[in-house]
Specification:
Number of helices of chain A: 5
Distance between the termini of chain C: 50 Å
Strand content of chain C: 25-35%
Largest interface: A-C, 45 and 44 residues
Chains: A alpha+beta, B alpha+beta, C alpha+beta
Number of domains of chain C: 1
Radius of gyration of chain A: 19 Å
CATH class of chain A: Alpha Beta
Largest sheet of chain C: 5 strands, mixed
Number of domains of chain A: 1
Radius of gyration of chain C: 19 Å
Strand content of chain A: 35-45%
CATH topology of chain A: Ribosomal Protein S5, domain 2
Oligomer: heterotrimer
Largest sheet of chain A: 6 strands, mixed
Chain lengths: 256, 218, 256
């Protein structure tokens, strides 16, 4: 509801201008994070990640598919995100909206850029490759869906097992080993209101803030970025967030 | 069904009533027909419709939507400014309206107000009166059935919360709680959450007092 | 018995089923109420390998307005399977014809018990997500949704309890697993109001005699009493062991 945004914005900016947050955390603190690996058995990989009251599940299924014509020996990685109507009164039933498409693409971009999954190893035979479907399932929305989704996706990939292939088909329930994962990608999302930057925006903060900025990192590199919202980011702000992301990324990676 | 609802369920009555029990929807309350709130009669027997506390022949729901009643004092959010008045969100599925004639104060979209329900018509449209704007603060949404516990006997809980946190706290019967003033709003919010989750338990006032004291000492 | 006899495993050996159960024995069931933060009511059910999450919103303003009733709350239901929920291939996104039918019959079961006259012009929404499926998801879904509705404080004339019964190797057995469902002779999902003993959901496929049907209903009803007890325990636990944090109690997870 629009009006709540207005109220929240007033309170938020007065709090933030004093360097405070409504729940008492520091400007660059995460809420409590938990990662549960492999809660599901039918999926070839799965995880549940929670940041504060935000809960996101990720599931992985493999299928045999035809490769893209321009990359005949490469497997397929397909990421999608569902903002389930049970997760928030703000979400509606229906086909994916812009927000869920953006969420899936930002998570996908980090994983793809860092070559987390070696798609060349997905080749089966001519016209046949493995397709990895990574589904992000938002179960409870209290802000910062991107970081929770990236954590869930990465943990699901790390838990995933390679299906056994016989005569060009997947033998369900049998595996040849773990999915080789080259790197651990995590993302850090910041909010900005006025001149104040803060990490891990809650839903209340998201409603009132001017913009958000997400930076995904590996141990050594930045691997994806996304700004959302109407606010502007100065180069100085950006570099501050880059430094914090690289540093916080190490802490997040320890949870995986 | 229950046409008449208890206005203010005596939520703390069970604290001196040992034989209270938690009942489920469909659970038998009486072997005879008894017209009590949140219950229904079928085949000459009386059953609960809700998860509730049943004691002394009374049923108090432990959860449930806010059911507005005339004279309820509510905290509301102005959602729309119209020619003739204001649309106000008071945590119900039904529209609440504050007519310009009912108030000398002028409000803006996004203002938080404290008001009284003056009328509810046959299609449940709600009219508000005696409205006043609340000072800057934060909104905490709680289940409306827990509100009597947050207020406490003769305002005791609310007075303790205000005193120990230094906040002005406005508790709407509708489950919207507004925390204003220069006090420790985060602490007030934590304490209110604690009361909400433990509303059905005994000795709550003492535990909240201990919690506030401990947090205060930090 | 038109199934391909050659592939059909023996479903009953010395009165024991594939997973070792007796014909009147339920799979292990675990019910946890209040697991989501934004939903007005919620519940998580593990039923054998099935994992189901239910969330309830309402009563809220009925949108679109032309769906409103002046006399009662409009009950809506969405039963949905996660694309990673099955043991076989990746599921299609969006509701299938099967999901739409199940959504309808589940909604109709709850229309019987929800006292919707209390909330004219509003809607009550029931969302069920099947996170993992192993036969019998609709019974797990109804059982979860019933607890979620009670958790939301929606007035009802009873909790609804669901159990399926079917015929395997010529014998009636309750709560068929996936393989039993695939190779059995008949499956009959049922939902009861145990207060009245009446059926609120009834579906059936395959062939049954009049006597088998009658026996099946008696077996399912006896089992439903056990499931009902678990539903009640889950709701009581919210008050007997109150906790502020709400999260999906996934099991078998490698927690960090």
């Amino acid at each position: 509801m629009e009006t709540i945004n207005e109220i929240k914005r007033d309170i938020l900016s007065s709090l933030l201008s004093q360097g405070k947050r409504a729940d008492g955390r520091g400007m660059f603190d995460y809420r409590q994070i938990a990662v549960h690996s492999a809660p599901l058995q039918n999926a070839e990989g799965s995880a549940l990640a929670t940041i504060g009251k935000t809960q996101v599940m990720a599931g992985i299924k493999f299928d045999v598919a035809a490769p893209f014509p321009d990359r005949p020996t490469e497997g397929v990685l397909s990421t999608s995100a569902d903002l389930l109507p049970l997760a928030s009164h703000l979400f509606e039933t229906g086909p994916p909206g812009d927000d869920s498409i953006e969420l899936a693409r930002v998570v996908d971009r980090g994983i793809r850029s860092a070559n987390v999954v070696d798609l060349n190893s997905f080749f089966i035979e001519d016209e046949k490759v493995l397709a990895l479907y990574l589904d992000i399932y938002v179960l409870d929305h209290d802000g910062n869906l991107i970081d929770a989704s990236t954590l869930a996706a990465m943990a699901a990939l790390l838990s995933a097992r390679m299906p056994k292939i016989e005569e060009g088909k997947i033998v369900r329930g049998e595996f040849t080993g773990k999915l080789p994962v080259k790197d651990k990608v995590v993302s850090c999302t910041f909010g900005k209101l006025g001149s104040r930057l803060f990490l891990d925006p809650s839903l209340d903060e998201e409603k009132g803030m001017d913009c958000r900025l997400t930076l995904s990192t590996t141990d050594s590199h930045l691997c994806a970025g996304q700004k959302g919202g109407w606010g502007a980011i100065s180069e100085r702000d950006l570099m501050e967030m880059v430094d914090i992301s690289l540093q916080k990324g190490k802490e997040l990676r320890r949870l995986l | 069904m229950t046409e008449e609802k208890a206005h203010s369920p005596t939520h703390h009555s069970h604290s001196h009533q040992p034989e209270s029990r938690i009942v489920m929807p469909g659970e038998l309350l009486f072997d005879r027909p008894e017209r009590i709130s949140y219950a229904f009669i079928d085949g000459g027997k009386t059953y609960s419709t809700v998860v509730g506390l049943f004691s002394e022949g009374k049923l108090v729901p432990l959860e449930g939507p806010y059911e507005p009643l005339v004279d309820d004092l509510v905290v509301g959010l102005v959602t729309e400014v119209k020619f003739a008045g204001y649309s106000v969100d008071i945590n119900t599925a039904y529209p609440a309206f504050l007519s310009s004639r009912e108030t000398r104060e002028r409000f803006e979209m996004g203002d938080t107000i404290f008001a009284r329900i003056t009328m509810i018509d046959e299609v449940r449209s709600i009219e508000l009166g005696e409205a006043r704007k609340l000072p800057a603060g934060r909104l905490v949404k709680v289940s409306s059935v827990k509100v009597p516990r947050i207020i406490g006997k003769k305002n005791s809980m609310l007075e303790m919360l205000s005193k120990q946190t230094g906040c002005e706290i406005y508790v709407g019967r509708n489950g919207y709680v507004w925390i204003a003033g220069k006090g420790n709003a985060s602490l007030a919010e934590k304490a209110i959450r604690m009361i909400e989750v433990q509303a059905h338990t005994r000795g709550l006032t003492d535990r909240v007092a201990a919690f506030l004291k401990e947090e205060h000492g930090r | 018995m038109s199934q391909a006899e050659s592939n059909k495993p023996k479903l009953l050996v010395d009165g024991k089923r594939i997973d070792g159960r007796a014909t009147d024995e339920l799979r292990p069931i675990r019910i946890v109420a209040r697991v989501l933060n934004d939903a007005d009511g919620s519940a998580y059910v593990e039923w054998g390998k099935n994992k189901v999450l239910a969330g309830v919103y309402g009563p809220s303003e009925c949108i679109p307005r032309h769906d409103q009733s002046l006399y009662r709350s409009v009950v809506r239901c969405r039963y949905n399977m996660a694309p990673f929920s099955g043991a076989e291939e990746h599921g299609r996104s969006g509701p299938s014809r099967r999901s739409r039918e199940l959504s309808k019959v589940i909604k109709e079961a709850f229309e019987n018990v929800i006292i919707s006259e209390n909330f004219p012009r509003t809607q009550i929404e029931i969302f069920v997500e099947v996170l993992q499926s192993d036969g019998g998801t609709r019974c797990a879904a109804i059982t979860a949704a019933s607890v979620a509705l009670a958790d939301a404080g929606i007035p009802m004339k009873d909790l609804i309890t669901a159990v399926a019964v079917g015929k395997i190797d010529g014998q009636m057995a309750i709560d068929l697993g996936k393989e039993e469902d695939n190779f059995g002779e008949s499956d009959m999902p049922l939902a009861f109001s145990l207060r009245t003993g009446e059926l609120l959901l009834f579906q059936m496929d395959g062939l049954l005699t009049r006597e088998e049907l009658q026996k099946g209903i008696a077996m399912a009803k006896a089992a439903a009493q056990k499931v009902h007890k678990l539903q009640v325990e889950a709701i009581r636990k919210v008050y007997e062991e109150p906790r502020e944090e709400r999260f999906l109690p996934v099991k078998g997870a490698l927690e960090k």
